[in-house]
Amino acid sequence: MPANLVFLGRLEDVAGRGELAVSPGPLEQVLAALDPALAIELLGERVRMALNGALLGDGGGVILREGDELAFLPPVSGG
Amino acid sequence: MAVADVRLLGEGFSPAEELATFTSAHPEAGGIVSFLGQVRAEGGPGAVEALELKHYGAMTLPGMEALAATTQARWVLDGLLIVHRYGVMHPGDPIVLVAAAARHRRDAFAAADFAMDHLKSQSWFWKREKTARGWRWIEPRPDDHRDLARW
After folding, report:
1. Where are chain A's structural domains?
2. How many domains does chain B have?
3. Which of A25, B27, B62, B64 could pair with A29 as two cysteines, CB 3.0-4.6 Å apart?
4. What CATH number corresponds to the domain at position B106?
């Protein structure tokens, strides 16, 4: 079973899709397998991450397990 | 107090009907303050033809519910209504409706104001606008952060 990456806001346009199934593993390894241009955007200073709906302080040490959902959240611009 | 009515909608809604229902559900309230946000109609070449709000299922509605709980904990309210759209909207379409019912009007004013400031700047929505030049993502405004500092 794969893990799932979710790209919100403008990151969906950068990725060309809203979601991407990836092989589980350490986040660095998952990002290294992506298009480098996308990986750079995902690691942007203002992009936050949420694992299974819970915000992460930073991405350090994240290991994606089977069925995990990791969302990349650019700054919000609501209402 | 009553449970807050918090909804995230993919379809249009009638603010007048929502407000009428909310008002009749809270006859004990001495005052009801509401705020309606709608898609602005503008003229000129930069006019917005459509607006799209994207949400994230795992976080957007849970975040709105947490905001409602914080608002209810801070002011004495009889009821709180938060209705927010996602999807594609056009000028004149309602985007967000917040209403606070309270025994005293100051609580109702403050609660609605607080909920709106936090919806605008801290809720998990991403906005893009369509003009004659195509779609473009909207970045947060510095004002949104200043609004939060009021609280």
Report:
1. 10-70
2. 1
3. A25
4. 3.90.1170.40
